[in-house]
Structure formats: structure tokens, C-alpha cells
Amino acid sequence: MATTRSAHTVWKGDLFTGSGQTSLDTSGLGTYDVTWDARAEKAEGKTSPEELLAAAHATCYSMQFSNMLKENGTTAESIKTSAAVDFVPGTGITEIRLTVDATVPGISNEDFQRLATGAKDTCPVSGALASVPSITVEATLAS
Fold first, then answer.
1. Which among 11, 12, 111, 126 counts the fewest CB atoms within 10 Å?
2. Are 116 and 138 in contact (CB under 8 A)?
3. How many CB atoms lie within 10 A of CB 1?
4. Are residues 22 and 92 both part of a single domain?
5. Looking at the predicted structure, is the pLDDT value of residue 97 above 80?
6. 68/120 same-domain check
7. InterPro entries from the xrefs (predicted)?
8. For residue 90, what is the enclosing H or E element?
């Protein structure tokens, strides 16, 4: 059975001088200002589609990785994932870099790296972003 989550944006004006607000409808957690400048220049207290994608990707990856680690018999004590999304005006999203630091007792670095890459390849957000030319993961196993 599918689960649906929703958000909406109200935009006023043209792309370059207009502005909008994006609201997280399902959770009701907030409404965030968006502008072209926040997307292509400096954030200055506003968000962008790429920042929202970064949050979604970091969360999805962490969830997928934690599940894969558990299925491997090596439950993580902690997983910290960052996602950096590169946007080039006129081109689009060109790269996503996932960086993960995790504490996972009883796992070899070889298995850790294999599962880290597997999580990148199989998390649903990675699948949704498959048209991005480069999605990488740099994983560090804490000792």
C-alpha cells in the first residue's frame, strides 16, 4: 500500500525577481521562503529545491543504510549522513555527494563500504534522482 506525503508552494512574480513559500503539508512542520537568489546565489535565510532534496536524500540514505546494516547482523550505533547537491543554472542538478560517518560495532571496513555503496544505489530517493549525472558516497567507519 502506498503512503502519500505532500507539500505545496505558492510562487508570486517571475523567476528572477519573484518569491514563494513552500509548506510541508503532511507533517505541518513549517513554511519556508524560496527565491531564485536562494537557489542560485546565497541562501540568506531561504531554502531551495536542492536543499530540500539534500535533506530528503540524507534521510533516505541513512534509513536504507541502517536497514542494510541490521540485515547484515551489524546494527549501527549511529549514522550521520550529509548530502551536498550541486545546481548549475541552465543545466540543473549535476552532482550529489553523500558523506556518512557511522559507528557500527563488529563490522569489517570491507563490508561497511560494500553496504554503504549498496545503500546509495538502493535508497528510494537515489532511485528518484537517477538522472543526476553523479551520485557518490564517501563512508567513514568510526573506530
1. 12
2. no
3. 2
4. no
5. yes
6. yes
7. KH_dom-like_a/b, OsmC/Ohr_fam, OsmC/Ohrsf, OsmC_Ohr_Peroxiredoxin, Peroxiredoxin_OsmC
8. none
